[in-house]
Amino acid sequence: MRLAHLSDLHLYPHGALRPADLLGRRVVGALNLFLMRTRSHSNDVARLAVAKALELGVDHVIVTGDVTNLALEPEFALAADVLAPLGGPDFLSMIPGNHDYYTPAAIAARRFEHWFGRFVWAAGEGDYPAWKDFPGVRLILACSATKPPPLCAHGWIGVPQADRIATLAREARDQGLFPVLAVHHYMHVQHSVREITGFLLDKGRLRDVVRTSGVGLVLHGHDHHPHEMTVPGADGCPVPVIGCGSTTLFAPDRGRRGRFNVYDIADGRVTVQRWQVADQGDRFEPLPG
User: Fold this and answer.
1) What does the pLDDT look like over 31-53, one tens digit per residue?
2) Which of the listed residues 194, 234, 242, 269 has the most CB atoms within 10 Å of its CB?
3) Structurally, how many domains does the chain consist of?
4) Could you list the residue range(s) of the whole structural domain that residue 104 is in?
5) Kind of pairing, strands 130-134 and 92-94?
6) What CATH code is carried by the domain that includes residue 102?
7) pLDDT (tens digit per residue) in 59-100
8) Alpha-carbon distance values, 211 to 143, 144, 235 (Å)
9) pTM for this model (two decimals)
């Protein structure tokens, strides 16, 4: 199976934010959006990534959260338009990030699920984790987005979801399928303020799930910089944990360029191709190695 991994699109249509939206958490979020994100993330680069994934002949695409900035309806509409060329749920899977759950109102209204639930569950809406089976592979879709304190972006898996992830992974192994877990928040440690304000609160629990359940690959977002590591898995086998970084970054003068990955999964082995937007911002090109 060939799987493309995009993340942290942070799409924003011009004029989407209205004065009436500037309540609660969105006040700080709006400052961050206009001072940082609109200068760093490109809607056009998102479209280039979608086109390149299709050109590469992948079997499926996973987007590991944060398709929006402030969980605004126009942002979700733009995300739906950008991702539309990928077609239906047989070709595209999505999970929410903390920005897609940006306000209590967005969470209560299940705004992400309203727009993209069909790319999570086979029919309608349900509980997390969800899963999809493909030839040789089971894709497990977890939700780490939650309602964090002000100025924070923490994630949380929780015991029921962790137990279900473990069960789904074990069942997959019993059926001869390779379990791939998709989650928004990362499992590594960042030596910065991000580690204080935005880490996965129960990352130890998730590591235990990976260590005991047979999960073979973990894909994540949240960290806009690409990151790869391994953690101990079942029978001591190392499990790759990979964040492709933000796909839509385009600030080459500051060394920030969008990335996405392609994984070829066969016979229990994973091969990674890494793609990065060119300096001109007009195409994605492969990275060596």
Assistant:
1) 555 445 556 899 999 999 999 99
2) 242
3) 1
4) 2-286
5) unpaired
6) 3.60.21.10
7) 999 999 999 999 999 999 999 999 999 999 999 999 999 999
8) 19, 18, 8
9) 0.93
